[in-house]
Write a structure and sequence with these properties.
The chain has four helices and seven strands. It has 178 residues and is of the alpha+beta class. The longest helix is centred in the last third of the chain and has 23 residues.
Length: 178
């Protein structure tokens, strides 16, 4: 008889449920030998992002917080050539028996052809056998989202795979140094 495992899921705010938005991507890795507590600091500290993800730059915080993410933090970063304004809407650091979560609402100002609204969520979950599950999912609304969704290969899917793989690799390297 095989074991049944229930995994945590992203919590979607109204208007951002996958399948009802203009664009959606999901990326996931499961890595042995790491924990959520070892991965968390490398996403939580935005100074680390450019070191393992080449598509994030010019990160700055508006509210005097940062460089660490926190509940309600307002920040801005450049990705895919867009200057994205963002606000952390979910922030739950690693705790035993509970998935860690970070999510932000992001937006790009502009007219109907340029406006973009996103919900980008991350989940870090310790699994049996000394493994960690890293999941990132994003939904988007707006004309730029429709254009990204129609592009093959999908640039957001590929960039988020680079982000999640780079995050896992950086966490493994940091763990090996300690």
């Amino acid at each position: 008889m095989s074991a049944i495992t229930t995994q945590a899921a992203i919590i979607w705010p109204a208007g951002y449920l996958p399948g009802t938005t203009d664009n959606y991507v999901s990326n996931e890795v499961i890595i042995a030998g790491l924990s959520a507590a070892q991965v968390w600091p490398l996403l939580n500290d935005t100074r680390a992002w450019p070191g393992y993800y080449g598509n994030a730059s010019e990160i700055r915080f508006h509210d005097g917080s940062g460089p660490l993410l926190s509940a309600g933090a307002r920040f801005r970063f450049t990705t895919f050539g867009f200057a994205v304004e963002a606000e952390v809407t979910e922030y739950l650091p690693p705790q035993p028996g509970q998935a860690a979560r970070i999510a932000w609402h992001g937006w790009v100002e502009g007219d109907a052809a340029q406006r973009l609204d996103v919900h980008h969520a991350w989940l870090f979950e310790d699994l049996e056998g000394g493994r960690v599950r890293i999941l990132t999912q994003e939904t988007q609304n707006g004309q730029p989202a429709r254009e990204l969704a129609a592009t093959l290969p999908n640039p957001m899917l590929n960039a988020h795979q680079e982000w999640i793989t780079g995050l896992a690799r950086a966490a493994a390297e940091a763990a090996a140094q300690h």
